[in-house]
């Protein structure tokens, strides 16, 4: 790969969040499709080796900013896959840097899931429009970008994923759970129905 992932090399090709008409989140649609998700690959992307980063952001503790207490803040669940993209495109979209993609008080990162919301602002950069798209499980034609090879690797959340250091918090919570140390706030929040939302798909070369 030509990049080690540093700098403004990440660009978004897909996102999904909340739809008010059916009161559904992206994770509801992922569950309904049994974990399968078709990702459109912009047809004008320059051929080469890319890293696809998908991410689900859990919002059940996001009504408080990270650092407010030990359990506060959004939680991040990323995965990555190596892709080889072929086609006749030449576009190299401008991108953003990771970490640094989100701030703790960004709309969509600091968000109250429990207040009867009617909308949700997906955080991060705008989706790259591209020159049309095919889905990642199609062979494609007429110069459309296609995926020749996919290698997946599940990545645990870590402080490097964003400025909110969600992974460190999750590790700490697991250790505390084993010791049986739960606060009154944790007990109350454990009764809530946990919801996760938003699959970001970002690739870089």
Q: What can you see in these coordinates?
A:
- Keywords: Carbohydrate metabolism, Cellulose degradation, Copper, Disulfide bond, Metal-binding, Monooxygenase, Oxidoreductase, Polysaccharide degradation, Secreted, Signal.
- It is an enzyme of class 1 (oxidoreductase).
- InterPro entries: AA9, AA9_LPMO.
- Its main location: secreted.
- It catalyses: [(1->4)-beta-D-glucosyl]n+m + reduced acceptor + O2 = 4-dehydro-beta-D-glucosyl-[(1->4)-beta-D-glucosyl]n-1 + [(1->4)-beta-D-glucosyl]m + acceptor + H2O.
- The protein has about 200 residues and is an alpha+beta fold.
- The chain has one domain (about 10-205): Coagulation Factor XIII, Chain A, domain 1 (Distorted Sandwich).
- About 15% of the residues lie in helices and about 25% in strands.
- It has 3 helices and 9 strands, in the order βββαβββββααβ.
- The protein has helices at about 25-30, 165-180, 185-190; strands spanning about 10-15, 20, 25, 40, 50-60, 75-85, 135, 145-155, 195-205.
- The strands form 3 sheets. Strands 1-9-5-6-8 form a 5-stranded antiparallel beta sheet, sandwiched between helices.
- The longest helix is centred in the C-terminal third of the chain and has 14 residues, at about 165-180.
- It is globular and about 50 Å long.
């Amino acid at each position: 790969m030509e990049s080690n992932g540093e700098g403004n090399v990440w660009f978004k090709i897909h996102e999904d969040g909340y739809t008010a008409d059916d009161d559904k989140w992206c994770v509801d649609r992922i569950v309904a499709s049994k974990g399968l998700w078709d990702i459109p690959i912009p047809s004008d992307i320059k051929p080469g080796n890319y890293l696809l980063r998908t991410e689900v952001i859990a919002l059940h503790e996001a009504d408080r900013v990270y650092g407010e207490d030990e359990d506060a803040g959004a939680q991040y669940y990323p995965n990555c896959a190596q892709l080889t993209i072929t086609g006749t495109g030449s576009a190299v979209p401008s991108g953003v840097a990771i970490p640094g993609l989100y701030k703790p008080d960004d709309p969509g990162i600091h968000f109250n899931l429990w207040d009867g919301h009617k909308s949700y602002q997906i955080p991060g950069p705008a989706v790259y429009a591209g020159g049309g798209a095919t889905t990642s499980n199609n062979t494609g034609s007429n110069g459309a970008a296609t995926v020749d090879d996919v290698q997946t690797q599940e990545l645990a959340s870590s402080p490097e994923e964003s400025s909110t250091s969600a992974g460190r918090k999750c590790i700490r919570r697991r250790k505390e759970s084993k010791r049986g140390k739960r606060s009154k706030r944790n007990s109350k929040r454990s009764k809530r129905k946990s919801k996760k939302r938003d699959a970001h798909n970002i690739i870089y070369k």
